[in-house]
């Protein structure tokens, strides 16, 4: 009887330990998206301000939580991209990110991101000691987190990474780092399906969380099975958060979509005001640089085309393309280069400069789709040089949250001429 009682007590203690595990919240592949662009109602999800509100509500309810990120939070290494990356890093720090797996985007600047932002990075297969990066992290005294980033994701052409070691070396390191006192072991993983299956065979982890493999947010698989094993991940570009309950025998998860149900956290207003001013300064600097060059504008604008192509011009005037600049004015993004590129003709390609300097090249016009119009007269064989409009032409802009409902078959008849 005493032996049975001890077994029951042990079982109860084990169950209590599981119940004591904090809730887990996952993000990943934010890719510099700090705020919904406003292009579409159905794609209006995510952003720092809504994420901040969500976590603030959790903190107010005294929920014990661990926040893990699967990496690739960094924007491209442009001047504007660096501003956005710094904003996301500040959000991580303010809302107490527990751990992050650095992705290829974080290595795009070598190791400068690690020194600059000093986040709680974990990367078990680092081949050298990277700044502020640990091989594993013990969270809440019971959850040990490991990280794997495939070397193949940093290899470009003949260049081989010196930052990462092999999958075999990773598995050896894990065995050295595991501790019998760990209540739970989690792997943040970014690699191929073959590597994922190889790691999952070893039974070294209680939970493996792979990074989202999708390129765009309108075509992502958030949960899937691979050779009989189930996996789930986090939504792309900060559009949502995956909430995970580790306290049950069977792990449960749900996706929390950051719609306008979550109001913008007003505490970020000053940061976004400053960001907009800095982006405007970058834009005005670009205009000054262009003004110093010879006038190289090669685009003619719709007026040049519709003088002869009148029927086609009337069709265009009735489309939303003709008012694309107005939509930027509505959301106050007329000085944001990342928005201008899809709402004007030939921006940064010897075309649109600003609404004041090149008003004839604002909005989406003929040359966005058909290419630069060469001088020609009626009767010329212009069709031979004109760009053929295909689905890929449209997807230069109609992609992801900018146009999640895009369907070439449905959209094309609206502008066909």
Describe how the helices and strands are arranged.
Blueprint lengths: L1 H18 L3 E5 L20 H13 L4 E5 L9 H16 L4 E2 L11 H6 L3 E2 L10 E2 L1 E4 L3 E7 L17 H11 L6 E7 L2 H9 L5 E4 L12 E4 L2 E4 L7 E6 L6 E6 L11 H23 L10 H5 L3 H8 L6 H7 L6 H4 L25 H5 L20 H4 L13 H8 L2
Parallel strand pairs: 1-2, 2-3, 4-5, 7-8, 8-9
Antiparallel strand pairs: 1-12, 6-7, 10-11, 12-13
Organism: SAR324 cluster bacterium
Protein name: Cytochrome c-552/4 domain-containing protein
Would you summarize the structure shown here?
The chain is α/β, with parallel strands linked by helices and 417 residues long. It is 33% helix and 14% strand. α3 packs antiparallel against α7.
Characterise the protein shown here.
This protein folds into 2 domains: 10-266, Metallo-dependent phosphatases (Purple Acid Phosphatase, chain A, domain 2), CATH 3.60.21; 295-415, Orthogonal Bundle (Flavocytochrome C3, Chain A, domain 2), CATH 1.10.1130.10. It is built from 14 helices and 13 strands. The protein has helices at residues 2-19, 48-60, 79-94, 112-117, 167-177, 193-201, 269-291, 302-306, 310-317, 324-330, 337-340, 366-370, 391-394, 408-415; strands spanning 23-27, 65-69, 99-100, 121-122, 133-134, 136-139, 143-149, 184-190, 207-210, 223-226, 229-232, 240-245, 252-257. Residues 1-19 have low confidence and may be disordered.
